[in-house]
Write the C-alpha cells for this entry.
Amino acid sequence: MMRIVRNDRGATLTEQLVALLLGSVMITGLYGFYRSELFHHISQEIKIATLEDARGALEIMVWDLKNAGSWGTGSAPPERGGVDDPDNDADTVCNRFYAATATMIHVQMDLNGNGNCADTDPRESIRYELTGPTSSCPGTNIIRRNGDCLVSNVAIPTAGKLFSYYDGAGADLGNAPSLQAIKRIRIAFAVQVKNPDPKIGGNLTSTLSTGVELRN
C-alpha cells in the first residue's frame, strides 16, 4: 500500500520571520496609503470651508463697490460738517471714491436718499483696507471693512495689489489713480491656512479674484 507521509514539523523560524516581514511591509504600505488619503480629504475640506468664507467676503466687497456713488436723490448730497468726511478736508459733497490705493479703497453712497452719506444702516461710507492681524483675526495680513475683520489669513498675490484700477478704455491707472477716472476695479487676494499634514507642513493657499464694473 502507498503510505502518505505527513510533515508535522510546522513552520521554521526563518519562515515565520519571512512571513512577519512580508506582513509588516503590507501593513506599512496600507497605513501609508490610508494616511495619505485621510490628510488629503481633511485638506480638501479645510480648503473648501476657507474658500466659502472668502467668497462670501468677496461678494460683500463687490456689492459695496458696485453701489459706490449710488445717490438716492440723483446727485451727490452735501457733506455734513465732517460727519461723513473722515479727513475733514475741503470737499463739499459725498465722494463716490473717497480714496483709492493698491491696498485700500474708501467709497461713499446714499442708498436711502436721505442726503447723508454717514448712515450705518444701511452702511453708506465704506472703507476696505489691508492691515496686520489682531488677536481675534489671525494671519500675516487681514482685510478690514470699516475697521472690522472681514477676511483673515490673507496672502496678497506677487503683484502686491489688493485693488487694481482701470479707466473706461481698460488702461491700468496705477497705485494712486485719479479717482474720477476709475471705471473698473479688480480685486485679487489669497487665503491660506496651515496644512494639517505635519509631514508636509507649509500652508494651503487658494487665490480669489474678480472684476467690478461700475454701474454709473
